[in-house]
Amino acid sequence: MNVLVFRRGKAGPGPTLCKQPIFEADKGSDENSLISVPGGLIAENNYGYEGPVPKDLTTRSPDTEPGIVKVAVNYRDGGCHVAWWNKTARVPTVVAKASLGAGLLYAYTHPSAAELPWRTLPVPNLLAPESWFFTAFDLRTGKQVWSRLTGTNLGFNNNYAPVSIGPDGAAYVGTLGGLVRIADTP
């Protein structure tokens, strides 16, 4: 997968400004819009998402390939390169959002069973809970800043709904089960 940046022209796209490969070969896709931030573009890897219904005899949606990448773009002179690459975050479907004021990228993550932040009884991956998190990443580095569990069943799958930030500063994510609100205060 490549990020292509074109010069803007009066009749549409002009010549190519730059082309930057992202994600592992044959393991990358971005079903959503790239996120424009000062000096570049951010892409999330949705490769492997096949819809919200678990496959076979499992309680979990299939794991997707991890990855969020910021491509730094030199808009004046041309050229681009990967500024940072978070190779662990799994963002199956959300339309992530950036807050320049907070310096954060907000995403809805779905870790693999082995990556869940808790351990109970040793259970096969197929029996691990379907767990969804609202997660923030540093826009400068791509590193995870914090993450909050929103729910642990199919009803918390967002299936391509966006993150929306309300005027009160709360974040909202539409899910199969309804609307999830994430806020510092009730």
What do you see in this structure?
- This protein is an all-beta fold.
- It has one domain (2-182): Thrombin, subunit H (Beta Barrel), CATH 2.40.10.480.
- It contains no helices and 13 strands.
- A four-stranded antiparallel β-sheet has the order 3-4-5-6, with no helix packed on it.
- Strand 3 and strand 4 form a beta hairpin.
- It is globular and about 55 Å long.
Topology overview:
Blueprint: E1 2-9, E2 12-21, E3 35-37, E4 40-44, E5 68-73, E6 80-86, E7 97-99, E8 104-109, E9 132-138, E10 144-151, E11 163-165, E12 171-175, E13 178-182
Antiparallel strand pairs: 1-2, 3-4, 4-5, 5-6, 7-8, 8-9, 9-10, 11-12, 12-13
Short description:
With 186 residues, the chain is mostly beta strands. It is 0% helix and 41% strand.
Sum up the structure in keywords.
41% strand; 13 strands; mainly beta; Thrombin, subunit H; four-stranded antiparallel sheet; single chain; 186 residues
Mean of residue pLDDT values: 90
Write the H/E string, N to C: EEEEEEEEEEEEE
What is the total domain count?
1
- Spatial strand arrangement across the major sheet: 3-4-5-6
Estimated share of beta-strand residues? 35-45%
Low-confidence stretches: none
How does the major sheet shape up? Answer: 4 strands, antiparallel
Strand tally is 13
Question: In CATH terms, what is the architecture?
Answer: Beta Barrel
Number of helices: 0
Rg for CA atoms: 17 Å
